[in-house]
Specification:
The two termini are 15 Å apart. The protein contains 22 helices and 4 strands. By secondary structure, the protein is mainly α.
């Protein structure tokens, strides 16, 4: 990333205690564009841009706020020099933590070993990609000078931040329950970056779900009513919904779907942190299996708390025009006519569906990402947004294929009381009846519109998410 520095600025700016001040001055003068002896945020941004370093606004602000000792919003030469010295000490600790055999160079096997202790499993080929991005002399090892030069202006503070992009997901919501939450560092939690990222994801999810709500309602209608004639297709389904309630009816139940994003996300992330603490030994990093278990339990906890909203959403989506006058009216009528237990109909198949969905989604995602890095990555260890989104779409699709029969039974159980002449059945009874009358394909009714909404949902969610991150000043990973 900063290979341009070698042979030009870096030899004169190498941060060593014995280095004469003129070495720091060479680099400082490059940044002090108006020559007034101080560097403000504008000069830092322009100066680094002119030197070919693109950190993003948050990275440059972090350098400024960390080095600005007197808090005047600028860096004088002494502050600039002290920042580089302090930053070098942190990078020295990170270098030593990777140099397991203390021979003064970092090798691919040491990167593999170090990332395993952080709960990340990568191949030797992926470790070599990391080395290639830093190595300047072609030895396929990284010595201290190469490491220091590479991270000179990168405001990371430790090895965990250096490899953070391995641990973060894209934050994209496609309208289905995300089982494995993202992870945040202690610094992100203290700075408020965590809630900004969650808020950006929540807003993106709300816009995405609203945009694809007609397909979501069609899925529910096909799951519940498709078995009556066995002939309901996408065109007939849309026509029936519009004929019965007009264009607005295509968004029936979407309000509940959007409202449950915030509490579900909050509970999921809070409980995920608690489960991680219970499952991991103090001082050790969470592994992928513990992450899966913690995420599954967090998803189950969140679903338990917000599940009544799931039932209300289904009832509103299936209900006829005028049957309910909103979320509260629906809840009041369910409570009056069916009791509290009705709010948890279908809860068991919903809970059972979390495990196969989470396991397959996470496993396929990691497998696809590793395959891309092993076979298609050239000079970067960061797969990039497009690759990560592609991996997420495929992994989510595989997870849904495995858990969809349980999701269908859950929806049928939630809506049974609304279908006249339908016997109230439990999960096992419904499975038997569906298979006996409709065969295995009956377990996948409505899956076509479910898959149809994935691509537009991802596209809309990503665009909104990226724009909201800029608005909320979320640090780029």
């Amino acid at each position: 990333m900063l290979r341009w520095l070698r042979g030009f600025v870096l030899p004169a700016a190498a941060c060593q205690d014995a280095a004469p001040p003129t070495r720091f001055e060479t680099l400082f003068q490059k940044l002090d564009r108006n020559g007034d002896g101080v560097v403000d945020i504008g000069e830092l941004q322009e100066g680094l841009k002119g030197l070919g370093v693109a950190l993003g606004q948050d990275g440059e602000e972090k350098i400024l706020t960390t080095g600005d000792i007197n808090k005047d919003g600028k860096l004088d030469f002494e502050e600039f020099m002290q920042y580089l010295k302090d930053h070098e000490k942190k990078m020295k600790l990170a270098f030593k933590s990777l140099d397991k055999n203390n021979d003064g160079v970092i090798e691919a096997s040491e990167i593999v070993q170090s990332l395993q202790t952080l709960g990340l499993t990568i191949s030797e080929q992926q470790a070599e990609l990391i080395l290639q991005s830093i190595d300047t002399d072609g030895t396929m090892t990284v010595d201290w000078n190469e490491w220091r030069d590479y991270f000179l202006f990168n405001p990371v503070t430790d090895i965990e931040e250096i490899i953070r992009f391995w641990k973060h997901s894209t934050g994209i919501d496609i309208g289905d329950s995300l089982t494995i939450p993202d992870e945040f560092t202690e610094e992100e939690k203290k700075s408020g970056q965590w809630w900004r990222q969650l808020l950006a994801g929540g807003i993106a999810g709300a816009v995405s779900r609203t945009s694809t709500a007609p397909l979501d309602r069609l899925k529910v209608m096909m799951q519940v009513h498709g078995s009556k004639s066995g002939k309901m297709n996408i065109y007939d389904g849309f026509r029936q919904m519009v004929k019965e309630g007009g264009i607005r009816s295509l968004w029936r139940g979407n309000g509940t779907n959007v409202l449950k994003i915030a509490p579900e996300t909050a509970v999921k992330f809070w409980s995920y942190e608690q489960y991680k603490k219970l499952l991991t030994v103090e001082g050790q990093k969470i592994g992928i299996f513990d992450r899966f278990i913690s995420g599954s339990l967090a998803g189950a906890t969140a679903q338990t708390i917000i599940y009544p909203m799931e039932v209300i959403k289904t009832r509103l989506a299936v209900g006829k025009t005028g049957q309910y006058y909103g979320i509260f009216d629906c809840a009041k009528k369910i409570l009056k006519h069916e009791g509290v237990g009705a709010f948890y109909k279908g809860y068991i198949p919903n809970l059972l569906g979390i495990v196969p969905y989470a396991g397959i989604d996470l496993a396929v995602y990691e497998l696809l990402k590793s395959y891309w890095l092993d076979n298609y990555a050239k000079d970067s260890v960061n797969p990039g947004v497009i690759v990560l989104l592609g991996c997420g779409i495929v992994s989510s699709t595989c997870g849904q294929l495995a858990s969809y029969p349980l999701a269908l039974v859950k929806t049928r159980m939630q809506a049974q009381a609304m279908i006249e002449g339908t016997k109230q059945m439990n999960m096992v009874g419904l499975f038997r009846r569906i298979i006996s009358k409709e065969g295995i394909p009956g377990l996948y009714r409505g899956i076509t519109p479910n898959f149809m909404k994935v691509l537009p949902a991802v596209g809309i969610s990503y665009v909104v998410y990226e724009n909201m991150k800029q608005t909320l000043r979320v640090t780029q990973k």
